[in-house]
Specification:
single chain; alpha+beta; Beta-lactamase; three-stranded antiparallel beta sheet; 35% helix
Length: 456
């Protein structure tokens, strides 16, 4: 039986029996075709593969299909309330092209997670792939919440700016003004935000000195720095060095100044006003039942091993926020509307930080700064306990790219591939007109961290 007739017969069988289509109904020989045939559109086999995929997905009414060890659940493109804006930029043929190319890239890379792409407030791509929990075979959906890892820093930085707007602090205040026990005299809030403080990694202190059965809070991290005072890696403002410790202390400043827990302040001042109803701070000290969340996994041979929480999940501010692609899209649109802060303050958040010698760094107040084809990008990647995440905002043309995954797969190549697809019509022109320099690669945070660096 030929694949197309098989697909049609499966559709007829399922409709008559009133039972859902399951990927296991596809014979292994056809799955092997999907897995093994090369995907170059210009090759005859590439055309056959995509025709087969089309038939298996659409003619058989399939909402899921199988590739390797994964089930993929591509939802249809969904439009926001601004639907139709994309027609200003893309024809129907271009939308179909983008949909095909991006889905093909994600399937080929065994991507497991959720993706959202938008331009000027209109969704042009939004889909789910794979499992939120591999061992329980729970499928991913667009409402699944992911650990954002370092994307959490964008919310921590914003909370500091909200407190500055209220007149409760200034980013140029010394940290000791708000945390008197802080063991360093000459570090400012701005230097914590910009990663120029010189603080050593708090994770090393926790792993070496924390002996209690419960995970440490931010206050406990402060006490570790007080009890085991470590020299700074460099004089504050002397250079850029990514510091998760700085954002743990920023979260502690938020708690001290506001009189609320970090979770309460973020919910009350960011999530609730923006109706980010599927977002929350994952606080191990106040556990709650969480529905429809993703779990982080690592692959070992043919198995997926869940990565459990540990003591390093206790401190917040540098990580610890869960969200969905939809809620992050609300976050993105709120930034364009200047919903929480005046436009001039957002502009400061996206400005390059400066060192003592007045040279600039590619980091603002909780945001990495990057360029692609001369387009300004404010973004943040993340990596923690099997979660790999990216939130990129091409602010010159209001394009948003959000990827959230949970199977410990490096997504940097996927992000770069999607960028090239989105700007396929511009990249060749740009490359021809420039003396090409390497485009900055996507960076990821956490997972591995160096031992403390001591300066003589």
């Amino acid at each position: 039986m030929k694949p197309c007739f098989f697909a049609a017969n499966i559709h007829y069988f399922c409709s008559r029996k009133k039972q859902p289509f399951m990927p296991d109904m596809i014979p292994e020989k056809y799955l092997n075709i999907i897995r093994t045939v090369k995907t170059d559109w210009l090759s005859p086999y590439g055309y056959q593969r995509h025709l087969l995929l089309f038939l298996l997905i659409f003619l058989s009414g399939v909402s899921q299909f199988k590739k390797g060890n994964y089930f993929f659940n591509p939802s249809p493109i969904q439009s926001s309330s601004h639907a139709g804006y994309y027609n200003m930029f893309y024809s129907e043929e271009e939308i179909a092209y983008l949909d095909n190319r991006i889905t093909r890239l994600l399937v080929e890379q065994n991507f497991n997670g959720n993706v959202l792409i938008a331009r000027y407030g209109a969704l042009i791509y939004e889909r789910s792939f794979g499992f939120s929990h591999f061992n329980r075979a729970e499928p991913m959906n667009l409402e699944t919440s992911f650990q954002l890892a370092s994307i959490s820093k964008t919310f921590t930085g914003t909370a500091i700016l909200l407190l500055q707007k209220e007149g409760l602090l200034s980013v140029d205040d010394p940290v000791k003004q708000h945390i008197p026990e802080f063991p360093y005299d000459n570090i400012t809030i701005r230097q914590l935000l910009n990663h120029t403080s010189g603080l050593q990694n708090y994770m090393w202190l926790v792993e070496r000195f924390w002996r209690r059965s419960t995970p440490p809070r931010n206050e406990d991290v402060l006490q570790l720095f007080v009890n085991h005072r470590r020299p700074l890696n460099f004089s504050p403002g002397h250079r850029f060095e990514y510091s998760n410790a700085g954002y743990v202390f920023l979260a502690l400043i938020i708690e001290r100044v506001s009189g609320q827990s970090f979770a309460e302040y973020i919910h009350q001042n960011i999530f609730d006003p923006l109706e980010m109803n599927r977002s929350f701070v994952y606080d191990l000290h106040n556990p709650v039942e969480i529905e429809n969340r993703a779990y982080g996994f690592r692959q070992w041979r043919t198995s997926h091993i869940i990565i459990p929480d540990n003591n390093l999940d206790g401190p917040l501010g540098d990580k610890g926020i869960f969200s969905t692609v939809g809620d992050l899209f609300k976050w993105d649109q709120a930034l364009y509307r200047s919903s929480l802060l005046p436009a001039e303050i957002w502009k400061q958040a996206f400005e390059h930080g400066r060192l003592n010698n007045d040279s600039t760094i590619n980091y603002g107040f909780g945001w990495r700064l990057q360029s692609y084809l001369d387009k300004k990008i404010v973004h943040h990647p993340g990596r923690w306990h099997g979660f790999r995440t990216s939130f990129k905002r091409f602010i010159d043309d209001h394009t948003t790219l959000i990827l959230l995954s949970n199977n410990n797969q490096n997504i940097a190549g996927i992000i770069e591939g999607i960028q090239d697809i989105l700007y396929y019509d511009e990249k060749e022109i740009w490359m021809a007109s420039q003396q090409i320099e390497p485009i900055e690669a996507e960076m990821e945070e956490f997972e591995s961290y160096p031992s403390p660096v001591l300066e003589p």
